[in-house]
Amino acid sequence: MSSKNRKKWKLTNTPPVNNIQKTILQIKPQEEILPQEVNNRFPEIGDEEESYRVDWLGTFEAASDLGLAQDKNSESEQKKDLPKKGEQQLEILKEPDERVDMNLRTAKVERVTKETKISLELNLDGTGEAVIDTGIGFLDHMLYAVAKHGFLDLKLKVQGDLIVDGHHTIEDTGIVLGQALKEALGEKKGIKRYGSCMLPMDETLVLCAVDFCGRPYLNFTAEFTTERLGYMETEMVREFFYAISYNAGMNLHLKVLDGKNNHHIAEALFKSFAKALDEAKTIDPRIEGVLSTKGVISL
Fold first, then answer.
1. In the predicted model, what is the mean pLDDT of residues 251-263?
2. How far apart (Å, rounded) are the C-alpha atoms in residues 278 and 284?
3. How far apart are the C-alpha atoms of 214 and 252, rounded to whole Å?
4. Which of 111, 164, 197, 235 meets the CB 3.0–4.6 Å disulfide criterion with 276?
5. Mean pLDDT of the chain
6. How far is CA 235 from CA 3, 189, 259, in A?
7. What does the CA dihedral 295, 248, 284, 125 come to, rounded to 10 degrees?
8. Strand partners, 73
9. Strand, helix or coil for residue 165
10. Residue 206 contacts residue 272 (beta carbons within 8 Å)
C-alpha cells in the first residue's frame, strides 16, 4: 500500500476519540459473585442450634453462573456452542452419590459387639470441636488432637471391656473412625486425595503420608521404650492406625524419624496423621470428578 493510500485508509477506518470514550463509559463492571458462608459445627455440640452444611458446591454454581454471564456478551457463535468447563464440573459433582445430600460430608456410625459399644458422629469440614469419652484418658487426649489439627468435628462415646484391657476399645474405635471417614468422603469427588506432614515435637520428628486410594495399607515404623502411656498400651498405637487404614480404604505411612520421649512420639504420630488427613480430604476446585486416571477411587 502506498503512503497516500495508507493515509487515506487510516482516516477512513480510525474511529473518532469521542466514540471510543463513549464506548468505554458504557462498559459496566461485572457484579461480584460470592459463595455462601459456611457453617460447620454439629448442632449437638453446645446450646446453639447451628447447621453444619458445607456449601462448597455453591462455589462451582457461582463459577458456572459467571461463565454463562460472560458467554452472553460474546459475539462468537462457535464459543456459545462449546461446553463450558464450569458447567461440566458442576454436572459431574451433581451425579448421584451414596449420601442423601452431597453438600454434607458427615457420617454417623454405631458399632455394638460383646466387647464394645461405640457411637460416633463426624463432620469432615468442622472447626475442631470434639466431645470424646473412650474410657482411656490418653486415647481421648490423642483423639482431641486429631480433631483439632484435622479440623474435624467429632462426637464419640465408647463403652468397652476395660476390665480385660484396652485392646478391644482402642481397636474398635479405630475401626469405627475409619468407617466414618469412608462414609463421609463418599465417592471422593473433588478431594486432593493425597496428604502429607512432617511434624516436629520437641526432640521428636514424625512423617505421615495419606492416600485415599481405596486400597488399604499401613506402613508403620515406630518404637516405644515403655509399655504404657497412662492407661493406654503403646503397642496399641499401631493397632489403632491399622484399623483406621483398613476400614477407611487408605494408604497410610507413619515413620518416626527421630525421638526419645514416648509421649512426644505418640502425640506426634497422631498430630501428623491429623494434618495429612486434613490436606487429603480438602476440596480442590480444579479437580473434576475424582483425582484418578481410572475415573474412580475405589478398590
1. 98
2. 12
3. 11
4. 197
5. 78
6. 90, 35, 17
7. 140
8. none
9. coil
10. yes
Q: Determine which helix (DSSP H) or strand (DSSP E) holds 255, and give its type and residue range.
A: strand 251-258
Contact 167, 160 (CB under 8 A): no
Q: Is the pTM of this model over 0.85?
A: no
Return the higher-pLDDT residue of 8 and 289.
Answer: 289
Give the residue carrying C-alpha cell 461446553.
Answer: 83
Bridge partners (DSSP) of residue 130 are: 154
What's the pLDDT score for residue 200?
98
Q: Which of 283, 267, 295 is nearest to 59 (CA)?
A: 283
The amino acid that residue 8 corresponds to is K
Inform me whether the pLDDT recorded for 277 exceeds 70. yes
Strands (DSSP E) contained in 230-271 are 232-233, 251-258
154 beta partners: 122, 130
Cβ atoms of 122 and 154 within 8 Å: the answer is yes
- Residue in 40, 208, 49 with CA at minimum distance from that of residue 125: 40
Burial of 216 (0-12, 13-18, 19+ CB in 10 A): middle
- Measure the CA–CA gap between 6 and 25, rounded to whole angstroms: 30
